[in-house]
Structure formats: structure tokens, C-alpha cells
TrEMBL record:
Single GO term (MF): transmembrane transporter activity
Compartments where found: Cell membrane
Listed HAMAP family: Q_prec_transport
InterPro entries, per the entry: YhhQ (IPR003744)
Protein name as it appears in the record: Probable queuosine precursor transporter
Topology in the lipid bilayer: Multi-pass membrane protein
Record-stated family: Belongs to the vitamin uptake transporter (VUT/ECF) (TC 2.A.88) family. Q precursor transporter subfamily.
Keywords, comma-separated and alphabetical: Cell membrane, Membrane, Transmembrane, Transmembrane helix, Transport
Organism (species): Oceanobacillus iheyensis (strain DSM 14371 / CIP 107618 / JCM 11309 / KCTC 3954 / HTE831)
Amino acid sequence: MYIYFSAIFVGLLLLSNILSVKLFEMGSFILPSAAIVYVITYLMTDVIGEVYGKAAARKTVLAGFLTQIIAMIFIYISIQLPPAPDFHAQAEFEQILGGSFRLIFASLASYVISQNLNVSIFHWFKHKHGKKKLWLRNNLATMSSQFIDTVLFITIAFWGIVPTNVLLGMIVSQYIWKCLVALLDTPFAYILVKWTRKKEGNNPDYVIKAS
């Protein structure tokens, strides 16, 4: 199951980069569409770390980082390719997939720091509590790392571009949303961990092999 969880993690990560160009409104919150996808990646690393160990979770985070770099290289190449005469959506193609160097750097920097912080905090609590209190480490690790992710990304991407009050409003609204999702995904963490342990029960070496 480790390979499938890692694939889901990387797939959601790439999808969030594409969806981030669209904003949607929910009540008083204005959020990028990536907000409904990216937060689930933290659930995936928590489940991987809980079942397969800290090393496996870090490998998944590294795989996601390398995949983002590779994807960006090929997206850049595809944008630079001369469009066919019958292709009339080059500008839209660039707008959706291109992004700016500043946004790309903000995304990668916040990703590497926050995802690794999430793994570290999660496993600090796991070392302290063992298999107990999954809900606690799942929520505290996600909420702490998501705060860092939100502050870093929005500050790097938009500092000097939007007024400070708007910048702070973006940070607060996105962080509140991410905390709500973290609370809502707690039952799914229990379900996935229990199900995976049951599936892997016939293989006593699964933690060692994944790590």
C-alpha cells in the first residue's frame, strides 16, 4: 500500500499546482482551488508515517519535491514549443500552466519546509505516545506545519504586491480553512491506518521494507 499512498500524495501535489490558478469564494473566504487538494497531502504523509515509519514519510516528501521539479521543467519546455497553426490557446495555456518564478519558488520553499516539519512533529508525538493519540499528532502536526506553509507561501509570493492588510487577511483565511480540513480528516486518518495495517498484516516486514 505504501506505493499507492505515495502515488496519491504526488498526484495530489501536482494537481494542486494546476488548480491554484483559480480562486473560489466560500462565505467571507477567498481561496485558491488548490486549498481543497493540497491539505490532503498532509493526511497522506501522516498515514504513511504512522504505518510505515518516519523514513518512508520523508521519502514520499522528497519524491514529491523531485516530481514537482521535473514537472516544471517539462511544462516550461512545452510552453516554449512553437504552437501549431490550428492551436489558438497558447496564451491561455501559458497563463494556466506557466506561473511566475516567484510563485514557483514560494511553492517549493513552503512545501519543503512545511512537509518535513509535519513529519518531524508527527513523529515526535508518536515517539512520546506510541500508537495512542493518533488524533493529537495528526492535528497538531498538520496545523503547525500548515501555518508555516501558509505564512511562507503567501509572504514570498505576494509581499510588496498586495497591501499588508490584504496579505494578513489571506494568511488568516487560508489557515482557518486548512485547520478546519485538518479536523475533518481525522476520522479518515484512523480509517486508513486501521485498514492499511490490516492489509499489511500478512507481511511482518512491511515497515522495514518501506523505510
